[in-house]
DNA sequence: CGGATTTGACCAGCGC
DNA sequence: GCGCTGGTCAAATCCG
């Protein structure tokens, strides 16, 4: 229902439509940001979060954005790598250039805000992502990606979107 | 009309 | 074994 989406694309435009002012999206810059979501070790998922601030992600060192993945310790279970990003934004929908289809929404116990589940609509691409807002800081949105895209973006990747796509490459298993 | 959302039901894993 | 929590499905609905 809401229609923030559009706000995003105006990133490179001449003027920002105000609203959330600078959406300062993913600036997952610090490569050594270790996650700290989840209180108890949930278990086999390695959460790698990148702390964000209120700047524009542009210092992404090409060297290694090391979002870190798993240590190839082929244990039991199919430990899928997950990449969590904390983003300071007013909107929930962080568009990274891919097309997502929402397939569920659930309320989390410690959060008053629901969590949304999305899935990439590209045929054969089963990348999933969840978006959750912290009840403590309404301004923080946590986006968790699961899986990796193996296809081109189908949108006019703008500045940050392009960076994001590269990020996927760096964070590849 | 077709594709994306919505929303409750269903199900699996875990703790007690 | 039961109940809670989180994750996914699917039918109905909405919107362009």
From TrEMBL:
Keywords: DNA-binding, Nucleus, Transcription, Transcription regulation. InterPro entries: WRKY_dom, WRKY_dom_sf, WRKY_plant. One of its GO terms (molecular function) is DNA binding. Residues 89-154 form the WRKY domain. The keyword Transcription regulation applies. PROSITE patterns: WRKY (PS50811). GO terms for cellular component: nucleus. It comes from the Eukaryota. Signal peptide: none annotated. It is found in: Nucleus. Residues 61-83 are annotated as: Disordered. The keyword Nucleus applies. Residues 65-75 have a biased composition (Basic and acidic residues). Gene3D superfamilies: WRKY domain (2.20.25.80). PANTHER family: WRKY TRANSCRIPTION FACTOR 75-RELATED, WRKY TRANSCRIPTION FACTOR PROTEIN 1-RELATED. This is WRKY transcription factor 75. It comes from Forsythia ovata.
